[in-house]
Amino acid sequence: MLNRRNVLAGSAASLSLWTAFPALAQTRKDSLTLAMTLEPPGLDPTAGAASSIGEIVLYNLFETLTKINADGSVSPLLAESWDVSSDLKSYTFRLRKGVSFHNGEPFNAQSVKFSLERAGDAKSTNKDKASFAALSTKVVDEHTVIVSNQDADPDMLFSLGQATAIMVEPKSAAGNNTRPVGTGPYKLAAWSRGSSVTLAAWPGYRASMRIRRAVFRFIPDPAAQVAALLAGDVDVFARVTPRSVAQLKNNPRFQVVVSGSRAKTILAMNNARKPLNDVRVRRAIAAAIDRKALIEGAADGYGQPIGSYYAPTAFGYVDTTGINPYDLDKAKALMAEAGVNTPLALTMTLPPTPYARQGGEVIAAMLAKIGIRVQLQNVEWAQWLSGTYTNRNYDLTMISHVEPLDLGNFSKPGYYWGYQSAQFDALYDRIKHSARPADRSRLLGEAQRMLAQESVHAFLFAPQWVTVAHKSLRGLWKDMPIFVNDLSALHWAA
Fold it and tell me: Alpha-carbon distance 292 to 298, whole Å?
């Protein structure tokens, strides 16, 4: 145990640790303070689209049938094993026995049926409602369930490990946004709005956790992020603002992990609004943006240019950056061809993330060169979710979509982008029905090229996420196929 008496009685190295990390030195080595840029609007990932929800609750408070690992592979969690039909439409899950929810109710096949049907119900607010609506669930016995899909889905096991697929308890499900009840190793201990969420290990869990108490702090300001790390108030900051890294990466007190991701940072355009409903205007905007310069300005160099809505780390990726390359002369010509009178006034709505606030200013300066006068509108995260995402009240917005396997967003009716294409819908339907990897890869390439050619958005870069942590912390994810802070993997070195 690490406390003040041990530190003062110990070696010079221990005294140095006390000076550099007072918060860590005063806590038990089974406690941890994590930091996040954004506070979630609630704690139920089936009720909101914010990725910050899953960063706290997935695999900690709530569990899923399968678990996604750092390398993108899938392993058992609440399902101990499964069989897959040859047509990739039917999955038979054998459930873990002896599992209960935090309120004492048993987890069983009926829980699975309730959770999946609730996610796909007509009244569901789950962002993946359409996918769950295509499922049917049959209870075989108390610990066996068959989940069938209308379409072949090679990614089904991955999808069932995401935050939107959590298993919930019927009696408590409605209150999960503020009083979450799951089967995970932790329970909610406290939520100080605007400041922190505290989780405590649940004694009823089937395994012992090395981290018994975890505090998630919310620190959106880059300077404050650095200050918290240097002061020892924070033990680990996953996905820290890249601008903060230069001060920390050569400091021997820290470890810095640079991770690949499945995220896509885009300048989203409201395709339902004039003149953005004209492909020539959208292409002009894309051609006016120097992606490499933007990556330096918005992400301090931590990113890889993309030309479509697809990350280089994902299966079936093709390089489409040459379809709409940076070309100011072409951009000006396209604006003239579209008959746009300049200066054209557009509003760019920016959420509070540093990449958006920094990147928005860079993009506004670039678009000014082709006669587009951009008014930057900074909003808080809740305002972005309600005004931009839900009510589609925007012209442009810079945002990172971090979910993997979300190409289907372009086929969602009423999605906030305002994009509609029968041609893309037909292509995506073929992708969903393609069981052979080679066919699927080819069709995914066609989809990427189609979105790039139509310039649905200005596709910017796939970010690289940077985690800064105390050098003695073990179990950090080296890559991030999904946003999660898996506390069960973390522990302090002896």
Answer: 10
Q: Give the pLDDT band of residue 480 (cuts 50, 70, 90).
A: confident
Which residue has 């006669």 as its token pair?
371
Residue among 453, 433, 455 nearest 443 (CA): 433
Query: Virtual CA dihedral for 466, 470, 476, 478, nearest 10 degrees?
Result: 40
For the chain, give the number of residues.
494
* pLDDT greater than 80 at residue 197: yes
Burial of 413 (0-12, 13-18, 19+ CB in 10 A): exposed
Q: In this structure, which long-range contacts are made by residues 246-252, counting pairs with CB atoms below 8 Å and at least 24 apart in sequence?
A: 246/300, 248/468, 249/468, 252/471
For the cut 70, the answer to whether the pLDDT of residue 26 exceeds it is no
Element (H, E) at 355: helix 354-368
| Ordered domains of the chain (ranges, CATH) | 4-37+185-260+465-492 (3.40.190.10), 63-175 (3.90.76.10), 264-463 (3.10.105.10)
Find all residues with CB under 8 Å of 250, minimum gap 6, and list them: none
Instruction: Note if the bond before 275 is cis, omega within 30 degrees.
Output: yes
What span, in angstroms and rounded, lies between the C-alpha atoms of 334 and 443? 29
Residue 253 CB-half CA count within 13 A:
18
Nearest to 316, CA basis, from 258, 262, 260, 259: 262
State the Cα–Cα distance between residues 99 and 376, nearest whole angstrom: 50
How far is residue 53's CA from residue 43's CA, in Å, rounded to a whole number?
6
Query: CA 204 to CA 103: how far, in whole Å?
Result: 10
Longest dimension (CA), the chain: 77
Phi, then psi, of 393 in degrees rounded to 5: -95, 80
For the chain, what percent of residues have pLDDT higher than 70? 94
Contacts (Cβ under 8 Å, ≥6 apart) of 123 = none
What are the structure tokens assigned to 137, written together?
């669930």
Amino acid at position 74, single letter: V
Task: Give the predicted TM-score (pTM) of the model.
Answer: 0.78
**Pair of tokens at residue 72:** 């993108």
**Exposure of 194 by Cβ count < 10 A (0-12 exposed, 13-18 middle, 19+ buried)?**
exposed
If 0-12 CB within 10 Å is exposed, 13-18 middle and 19+ buried, where does residue 425 land? middle
Q: What's the first-to-final CA gap in the chain, in angstroms? A: 10
The average pLDDT across 82-106 equals 95
HEC string of 151-197 equals CCCCCHHHHCCCHHHCCCCCCCHHHCCCCCCCCCCEEEEEEECCCEE
Tokens representing 107 are 């987890």
Return the SS3 of 241: coil
